[in-house]
Specification:
The complex is a heterodimer of chains A (279) and B (145).
Chain A: H1 2-14, E1 20-29, E2 32-38, E3 72-76, H2 78-89, E4 98-105, E5 115-117, H3 123-134, H4 141-151, H5 155-166, H6 174-178, H7 203-215, H8 226-230, H9 237-252
Parallel strand pairs in A: 1-3, 3-4
Antiparallel strand pairs in A: 1-2, 4-5
Helix pairs in contact in A: 2-3, 4-9, 7-9
Chain B: E1 12-17, H1 21-30, E2 39-44, H2 52-60, E3 65-70, H3 81-98, E4 106-110, H4 116-133, H5 137-144
Parallel strand pairs in B: 1-2, 1-3, 3-4
Helix pairs in contact in B: 1-4
The chains are: A alpha/beta (279), B alpha/beta (145).
Chain lengths: 279, 145
């Protein structure tokens, strides 16, 4: 499988179809992989792929300091395919700017799990293929179960739970840096006239930041979990994201990252949307 | 702070759209309809203009509840501002609930410029409801920590 992946990258770079290939490279151990940026066809052997490749590489596609003028090749797991779908949907770049090299593992994060190349080449093909792969199985079942546990609590208990979790937040914004959808040039947390979100790592600012971050991902988060893995303090940000994603799914019958051609759910509406909560 | 009166008087921050609910509240006034003075109205152009951050800021400043009110669906002065707002609040109120804010403190309504009576009755109803809930001390704890 890895040879097929390297061959695709070699061809893309050799034929000048892309100026850069972004993929996973070997770190200090097979379990520790890190992003590699390859510009020469003879360097494709640096690419590796295994179930431990968990970084969401789509995060680099909106980085002006990294992106070359031409097209880019991206080693794309289902998570990257869905992230790219959202970014294209939000018109951050044209679909033809990114040549997707589709890959997938049967069980991400599990040692020895089988990995394979995806068949699709275009974004549209890959969206359909990824949707098919994910059909009937929820890759984040444990997260969904923990969301349900929290929902069973009283608001007071939940507030106490989040107060405790957010109390560890050091406001490093690693969650933001790791997320492909956090591409605003000026984030709300940096807006200071007025200072919407207090900037010091104190309870109120931490609460505002983590709640608003989750809300800004409504209908956009594809649930890759990069934010929660990036968090040095182990705050379960994926719970907030999963909750919001589920509400969007239940209310608007929409799941992010499967169709870049439909309007984003939070930038569109139906006249018969639910409103039983409005008096 | 200790209240000296027997009954707790809640503070409810109401974010009102200029074209419908604000005019409806005005009509309630000119019609001499009485309603509790617990509402602090903030007039904005449209419910679509109301940022989720506004609600959080109101809680930061000591609100016991917030109300967002605007034009009925189909009546938006800007055609679709309230439709967009409706989607936003559908998700945001669930997120607030999940984050520990009692949904009974986050209220929404459609009140037209002709519904002065609905406005006065609504304010009376939600004021009684929030009064029964008591002061939002759990959030105050976070604000003051």
């Amino acid at each position: 499988m890895i040879e097929q992946l390297r061959q695709r990258a070699r061809e893309l770079l050799g034929e000048g179809k892309v100026a850069l290939v972004i993929g996973h490279g070997r770190g200090s151990s097979p379990q520790a992989t890190f992003p590699v940026f390859i510009t020469k066809a003879d360097a494709v052997d640096r690419l590796v792929f295994n179930p431990f490749c968990r970084n969401n590489l789509a995060v680099y596609l909106t980085r002006k300091d990294i992106m070359p003028k031409g097209a880019v090749g991206l080693v794309a797991r289902p998570e990257e395919v869905r992230s790219v779908a959202v970014l294209v949907q939000e018109q951050q770049f044209d679909a033809d700017r990114v040549v997707l090299i589709g890959v997938a593992c049967a069980e991400p994060g599990k040692e020895g799990a089988a990995c394979e190349m995806l068949k699709g080449r275009t974004l549209k093909e890959l969206e359909a293929e990824v949707a098919e792969r994910l059909k009937g199985r929820d890759p984040a079942q444990d997260v969904a179960a923990r969301v349900k546990e929290l929902e069973a609590m009283t608001p007071e208990q939940r507030l106490a739970f989040w107060e405790k979790e957010f109390s560890r937040c050091i406001r490093c914004y690693a969650c933001r840096q790791a997320c492909p959808m956090c591409y605003c040039e000026r984030c709300i947390v940096e807006k200071n006239q007025p200072q919407w979100i207090p900037s010091s790592a104190r309870p109120l600012g931490n609460y505002f930041w983590n709640v608003i971050r989750a809300f800004h991902l409504a209908g956009r988060c594809i649930g890759c979990g990069a934010c929660a893995r990036a968090c040095p303090m182990g705050i379960p940000l994926d719970l907030l994201n999963a909750k919001v994603a589920r509400e969007v799914k239940e209310s608007f019958a929409y799941e992010a990252g499967f169709d870049h051609e439909v309007p984003p759910p939070m930038a569109s509406f139906r006249t018969d949307d639910e409103q039983e909560f409005i008096k | 702070m200790e209240t000296t009166t027997a009954e707790f008087e809640p503070k409810i921050i109401a974010f009102l759209c200029n074209w419908c609910t604000y005019a409806g509240a005005d009509l309630a006034g000119t019609s001499r309809l009485k309603y509790p003075a617990n509402i602090r109205a903030i007039r904005l152009t449209c419910t679509g203009r109301i940022e989720p951050m506004f609600l959080l800021k109101a809680f930061q400043e000591g609100a016991d509840a917030v109300l967002v009110s605007g034009c009925h669906p189909g009546d938006c002065h800007y055609t679709s501002g309230n439709y967009h707002a409706r989607r936003r609040w559908t998700v945001f109120r669930k997120l607030l609930e999940f984050s520990g804010i009692d949904p009974r403190r986050v209220l929404f309504s459609w009140v037209s410029a002709a519904e002065g009576r609905k406005w006065s009755e609504l304010v009376a109803e939600i004021t009684a409801q929030v009064r029964a809930l008591g002061p939002f001390t759990s959030f105050e704890r976070i604000v003051k920590a």
